[in-house]
Amino acid sequence: MLAVAWQTLKELAIHPAEVLDQRLTEHRFISSLVLGMISYYWSMLQASEILLPPTIGGYAFWLVNFPVSLGRMVLTVLLIHLACRLVTRTRARWWELITVWGYTQLPWIVLTALASVFLATVSHTAGTEVGLFWVFVIAGIALFLSLWGLILKLQALKICYDLKGTRLFGVIALALLLNSSLVWMQRLFLTERAVVSQSAFDAMDLKADISLAGRRHFPLPFDTLTYHLRSPQRGEIVGFLPQGRESLMAIGSGFRLRLLGRIVGLPEETVEVRNGRVFLDNRELSESYVTGYPGIDLPPMQLPPGSFLILGDNRSLPSTDYGGGVVPQQRIRGRLTDVGRMKWRFLVGQWQW
To answer: What is the pTM of this model?
Structure first.
């Protein structure tokens, strides 16, 4: 099995056009679907968790993600096919592109696997520096695989639609526009990636070294769909915007800083914090996740309508250190789900949270 896979990779690297043409002639439909599903699996995992009916619960989204990933691949191919129809009025059939598209994703699958091994290795050797030589080696491998993937996609378009010259570039431009619009809609209404700072991780009492490879921030995925359908609930870990940034909420979605905290007080509740312990109407809130006693104090107050009290789990830190406190709902962008926590643990080698 491994020998066949290695031979296929070598042939795709040396003779991409011949290999893709052969796969199209042989109608290797199923293998292309499997490869495409694998390539989209990791990126669609959070979407599957969000779309899964709450009544099912558990980790069933691992299985649900297979058809969701397959659907994402088919939707991508359909958008590319639409671009070809609009530019060239071709009579080619869209399932011909699906027959070879999975093979064009092989470089991305290899890159994802290598990145996973690298991150897991670096995460378990925290405190070590990544030398400049290895930075260039890693960047070179990533660039090679990215260019290889681009070449395979161009060859697929040439084979399936007989594209060349200006028509090919026109299709590429339109396909990029259509797929970028799809990604923008997904990040705005379904799930987004945002960067979280060191202070936010400290507030949640995450002690892992996040300065791996010189990085001071890490991207995390947040569920944005849920808060379009309902209000935030107590106990949820949320990503929220720094004060004064709510007017920019819809611009550059997925590329800005998010603060991190847990919702402990709901709108119009009377809340008080004594030595880091939260009291609702003079009754202490049960919080098994809290560390850092004794800590902050807040006088009794009634939260305004549409505002929440957000605190970190590490109550020895003042809320001003990480932007916590009374936060209006328009600054809350999404919640951190199980997949988000799992991706964080993978990045820093911290497997319990």
So the answer is: 0.80
